[in-house]
Amino acid sequence: MTPKQKSEGQSLAALLAPDILELLETSPEAVAAETEELHPADLADVAEAMPRESLPAFLAALPSERAGAVLEYLDEEIRTELLEQMTPEQAAPLVAQMTPDERADVLEEVDEETADDILEAIPEPTRRETERLLEFEPESAGGLMTTEVVSVLETETVELALAQVRAIARGKRREAMNTIYAVNAGGELCGVLSLRELLAAPEGARIHDVAWGDVRHVVATADREVVARMTTEYDLVAVPVVDDKGRLLGAVTVDDVIDAIQEEQTEDVQKLGGMEALDDPYMQTSFLALLKKRAGWLSVLFVGAMLTESAMSYFDNELQRAAVLTLFVPLIIGSGGNSGSQATSLIIRSLALGEAKLSDWWRVAIRELSSGLSLGSILGALGAMRVLLWQALHGKGIHLGPLQIGNDYGEHYGLVAATVGLTLVGVVTFGTLTGSMLPFLLRRLGFDPASASAPFVATLVDVTGLVIYFTVALFILSGTLL
Amino acid sequence: MTPKQKSEGQSLAALLAPDILELLETSPEAVAAETEELHPADLADVAEAMPRESLPAFLAALPSERAGAVLEYLDEEIRTELLEQMTPEQAAPLVAQMTPDERADVLEEVDEETADDILEAIPEPTRRETERLLEFEPESAGGLMTTEVVSVLETETVELALAQVRAIARGKRREAMNTIYAVNAGGELCGVLSLRELLAAPEGARIHDVAWGDVRHVVATADREVVARMTTEYDLVAVPVVDDKGRLLGAVTVDDVIDAIQEEQTEDVQKLGGMEALDDPYMQTSFLALLKKRAGWLSVLFVGAMLTESAMSYFDNELQRAAVLTLFVPLIIGSGGNSGSQATSLIIRSLALGEAKLSDWWRVAIRELSSGLSLGSILGALGAMRVLLWQALHGKGIHLGPLQIGNDYGEHYGLVAATVGLTLVGVVTFGTLTGSMLPFLLRRLGFDPASASAPFVATLVDVTGLVIYFTVALFILSGTLL
Questions:
Q1: I need a labelling partner for B284 at 20 to 30 A (CA). Which of A158, A303, B54, B205 fits?
Q2: Do B262 and A257 touch (CB under 8 A)?
């Protein structure tokens, strides 16, 4: 997804906007024919490039089915503003033409009063259908599903079913058209077949002879993550949704599953960065909303991090007697934070994809303990070498800008090197283990593992890292510096 | 994606494994009929629950088309091991039955010698087709596409095309079957229509009358991110792939697009955590491979973080004269790192989704500068209040475990509070700005923005944070403590 790709696509559609605006003034009746070949997504790009006040006239110049499709692709913010400005009588015919799932989504975006007014102006049975969809949680299977699915009775013949499908295909567009669901007389989902399987079925056969009996489905209350998992595991293009009695209600199509996957991923990345997930895209979030989502966690972590001051005070005696220890504090706690950040990202993603399960925690713990010890040994060796090297270079007068290469760590520099090296082994091991186990713990307690953010782990490790540092120092330097 | 969901699914299939193993020994010819109703993904779960040595016999007991489909869903590690153990004559018929894109993927996973042997045992023209697919980069449109698409001549009648499609549907399964591509005599892609549009077309019409002329397509060398972007933007179930002359080569189906999106996301999260992206899932990556991917960045960052020791040494004089400053070092640099981590996650995700573009950098910079100043003011106020509060509580003898509540920061404690507060404003603003601008800079330089990992930003901010701290201290404490 290079930005070039995206901006090229936008400018291409934007180029058409002035021509269409002119046409809209001179002969609005020609707009529909002129834009006939454009994909609704591109038409939406054209609309976004227009001045906002021309939008109602533009949509009015299109056949209402096309205008409804454009609404589906329109930028959320622009769409909400547009619908709130239009009269319910203008808005309702367009909204009624949207696919049922998008229609419900749109009505959830606008303010409640506008939504009620538009709903009231939508004719039955579309209104009732929309009201039913609005009852589901937006992030549940019911909230994502479209009700425009093709279902046939399992006892029907293939020929009759095919004729029915052709009739539906000539009428309204149906999103989940490529999959045909078989139901029994009670409306219960009992089979599935693809349009191509229906085409390939022998003449005279009945639906229950050719449909697959074992249908993968979800209940309407299932979380969107369950729908996403099922889609990716079985390579589905639509997941049928049933009520608690097994009756077919609709289906979630793959395009909505992809949107759900992207949204979940965005939430995970934002949580991993140490903030609350945003409700809207970054560029469309208001400054105050953005601040609120960030300040909360940042303040909580800050108050937690105040414990580092307490730890430093607790070891004040040691710090005063062995001031050289101070120099390595940022290096040591930073390394703990970095190794924790690696581990937590690895495990959060692994849990999100279902590669690692809760029961794998001890396998992961053993693995990360070994990883931590190995990584800690590498950094510990580098750290000790740096002390010895700087001591050896001390007094040679080598400078790099304002910085002096080499330093004097005193007569016990060897013990200082050992302290730094050994501390790094401990801190990196602790950071790695904490970073990897925290996501498991959070999931076990019913929280989102992604809340084990890099800053959360870093803060935890900062405090503990100081305690490890001074404990090691007391052990090694006792009798010399301490 | 609760882990319960996943483990339930696995254990369900695993429950069948012993029965099927027994059947395999007593009457292997009955295995095919017994497992007929299972989805290949579930059959793969059964296979994964079996002892490895029974796998060849199990696959041999299935019709080769089914066995090929099971291979497609089988765990990558088990599949590679299996194919490398089988003779080329055993493996080739199964591999030949896989969809062309999966077949090419599988041959890229096994070692080169095995791949060559299996390829040689695959009959023409399947072999030539596979060799052609293997020439594309695995992460390009060509590497992801299947060649099994349905194409018809644009001059054909709808009836002839439908008869052709029915014939194909009765024969081999075609992945991208729901979309029909129209080509001209030269093989160039010139139209597209869905199976349902073909069904709904008026009798006697020709394909070019009913197909959509403006086909969204990609060239075979396009990156998988371009394919993903196009799929999500236009809600496609397949994206046609053409060569540099516009001739139809195949199509990337939506299930492979979802896989590509998930893989990209995993890479981004791992990079964001401060490591190289893994080639395989975490649980399947060997300990040494894991260590290699982590040790590199961790060591580079560690060497960079050594600059904190240099900075501390540079301000050694100030540290000795005003030892109280030492106490706040971890708190201050930690806050800079946390705010940087928030900003970098936000911007990396925003760039990955194409919400923010390279040209938006200055808008983001202004926004993040304001965010940084606001967040810094909040933390600065909290920090200064903590100093004043602890000074007030000093000597009251309040203890929390081993920690004393309250501390004596000396007679100039007011100035210390001001130093800590002002430094936090500076450090958090700098962290936020660095975290948000680094991804833009990396993209501008042609690198992956996700390399602006949380640890990278934290390390950058640690060093600068110390310089900010001591500069502010020199300014405020000059004449009193310094």
A1: B54
A2: no
pLDDT recorded at residue B2: 31
Query: Is the CATH number of domain A150-265 3.10.580.10?
Result: yes
- Encode pLDDT of B390-435 as tens digits: 999 888 878 877 777 888 888 889 999 999 999 999 999 999 999 9
Residues B36 and B33: their CA atoms lie apart, in Å, by 5
Per-position DSSP letters for B42-59, written without gaps between them = HHHHHHHTS-GGGHHHHH
CATH of span A3-137? 1.25.60.10
CA separation for the pair B26, A142 (Å, rounded) = 46
CB contact under 8 A, B196 and A39: no
Choosing among B345, B355, B382, which should be mutated to test the A contact, i.e. which has the most A CBs within 10 A?
B345
Structure confidence by residue, pLDDT tens digits, A381-418: 999 999 999 999 888 878 877 777 888 888 889 999 99
Pairing of β A238-242 and β A218-219? parallel
Q: Tokens representing B215?
A: 């086909």
Q: How far apart are CA B312 and CA A434, in angstroms?
A: 28
Chain A residues whose CB is inside 8 A of the B345 CB are: 269-270, 272-275
Q: Which of residues 143-172 of A touch B (CB under 8 A)?
A: 165-166, 169-170
Taking only the tens place, the pLDDT of each residue in A218-266 is 999 999 988 998 888 888 888 999 999 999 999 998 888 998 898 888 9
Torsion of CA B458, B460, B465, B471, to 10 degrees: 180
Task: Classify A282-477 by CATH class.
Answer: mainly alpha
List, by residue range, all CATH 1.25.60.10 domains of chain B.
3-137
How many other C-beta atoms can be found within 10 angstroms of the C-beta atom of residue A270? 23
For B458, which of A41, A337, A345 is closest by C-beta distance?
A: A337
Parts of chain B belonging to CATH 1.10.357.20: 282-477
Closest CA to B467 of B302, B332, B298: B332
Residue B1: its chain A contacts at CB < 8 A? 225-226, 228-229, 352-354
d(CA A254, CA B59): 31
Residues sharing a CB contact under 8 Å with residue B462, sequence separation 6 or more, in sequence order: A330, A334, B305, B308, B333, B336, B337
Q: Which residues of B touch A228 (CB under 8 A)?
A: 1
d(CA A478, CA B279) in angstroms, rounded, equals 47
Chain B closest CA to A57's CA: distance in Å?
24
Partner A, chain B 285-344, Cβ-Cβ below 8 Å = 287, 290-291, 294-295, 297-299, 301-303, 305-310, 312-314, 316, 319-320, 323, 326-331, 333-335, 337-339, 341-344
Interface of B with A in 456-475 (CB under 8 A): 458-459, 462, 466
Highest mean pLDDT among A115-124, B382-391, B394-403: B382-391
Range list for CATH 3.10.580.10 in chain A: 150-265
> Please, which pLDDT band fits residue B9 given cuts at 50, 70 and 90?
very low
To probe the interface with A, which of B294, B357, B424 has the most A CB atoms within 10 Å? B294
pLDDT tens for each residue of B283-322: 888 899 999 999 999 999 999 889 898 889 888 888 888 8
pLDDT at A334 exceeding the cut of 80? yes
Average pLDDT, chain A: 87
| Residue in A415, A421, A396, A418 with CA at minimum distance from that of residue A407 | A396
Task: Please work out, in degrees rounded to the nearest 5, the angle formed at the alpha carbon of residue A304 by the alpha carbons of A300 and A310.
Answer: 150
The topology under which CATH files domain B149-263 is CBS-domain (3.10.580)
pLDDT of residue A8: 37
What's the gap in Å between the CA of B454 and the closest CA on chain A? Answer: 7
